[in-house]
Amino acid sequence: MSGFGYLIREGFRSIWSNRIMSIASICVLVSCLVLTGAAELISVNIEKEVDSVGKTNETTVYIKDGASDLEAVYIGKNLEKLDNITSVRFYPKEDAINEFKDSLPEAVFENVNGDNNPLPDAYIIAMDDLSKYDQTIDAILKVDGVDSINNRSELARKLTDISNLVSYISLAIVVALTIISLFIIANTIRTTMYSRRFEISIMKSVGATNAFVRLPFVVEGMVLGFISAIIGTGVLYVVYEGVMSAVNSFVKISTIPFSDVYLQVGGIFIVAGVVIGAFGSFISMRKYLKMEGNEILGW
Predict the structure, then answer these.
(1) Same domain for 49 and 108?
(2) For residue range 182-222, what is the model confidence (pLDDT) as tens digits?
(3) Which of 65, 50, 207 is nearest to 145 (CA)?
């Protein structure tokens, strides 16, 4: 146990002893984390905006002509029971005809107003998931008393396509940045290994096991990853709030406050930072662990 504690202390000590390279590693990892986090947050905000547009895109369901008030109420109740329906609002034909009041000649309006109103009563509905638009429309048309629907399936499909495209692009960016992060971190740690090859050579020369040599460096990578995650979360907060404030000064859009996601972002950053740091150290040491003490120094 004391030996294990010694190795942990050595990992922390080496961070300070090699602080220049440690700072370089932290800067690289912070940059990668911030870029990856920013790409994901931008994607989430775009998807949220697309979803909000979809939810304000209401569909009109027309009731069959001659339906009584009681029948209209039952139709509304049946619509509310359907899956994927978030709201159902009655839209009487009197309100519908009044929308044409200013666009119709007065004589024509008076002729079609009241009992001569040719428009049907209707319900205005909103859906939760536009990808299920066609299935929902089919279910609505099967409701007894429904005459027709103002079908906007093309718009629904376009909004769904945009949302899916944003998700795919976001995933590609996150994967690409993660791979780049691993590559840069591995090379940064490999540079650190080279600058400390004399230290590794001594440990190998006195018979240290691979695990004994590796553990301090893995601990060092994990600590650097943890520190990078904390700093990265703070940097992302400043950048995100600044960018969103600038965007909202030109265009008013609904954005996700960083305070709503900072715990998730911080948690993901810590896990990613620690794993990348440990994995980068583990991979970078394989070359030296296969050599003997003198071989590491090139003697």
Answers:
(1) no
(2) 777 667 667 766 766 777 777 777 777 777 777 777 888 88
(3) 65
- Pair 186, 234 in one domain: yes
What's the pLDDT score for residue 56?
A: 59
pTM above 0.85, yes or no: no
DSSP SS3 for 101: coil
Q: What gap in Å lies between CA 50 and CA 263, rounded to an integer? A: 24
Residues 130 and 171 in one domain: no
pLDDT in tens, 155-175: 666 666 776 777 788 778 778
Tokens of 118: 């040719």
Please report, for residues 24, 229, 276, the alpha-carbon distance to residue 180 in angstroms, rounded to integers and kept in the order given: 16, 17, 11
Comparing CA positions, the residue from 230, 200, 195, 228 lying closest to residue 216 is 200
Please report the beta strands in the chain, taking only residues with DSSP state E, as ranges in sequence order: 59-63, 85-91, 122-127, 146-149
- Is the domain of 174 the same as that of 91? no
Residue 1 pLDDT grade (very low, low, confident, very high; cuts 50, 70, 90): very low
Q: In whole angstroms, give the CA distance from residue 122 to residue 60.
A: 7
* Contact (CB, 8 A) for 223 and 277: yes
**Strand ranges of the sheet holding 59-63, from the earlier edge strand across to the other edge:** 85-91, 122-127, 59-63, 146-149
One domain, residues 249 and 289: yes
Per the listing, tokens 């020369």 go with: 205
Residue finishing a domain among 151, 186, 216: 151
What is the C-alpha to C-alpha distance for residues 23 and 229, in angstroms, rounded to an integer?
A: 13
Domain that holds residue 188: 2-53+159-297
Asked whether residue 163 falls in the same domain as residue 240, the answer is yes
Q: Are residues 140 and 113 in the same domain?
A: yes
Does 135 lie in the same domain as 88?
yes
> How far apart (Å, rounded) are the C-alpha atoms in residues 65 and 58?
22
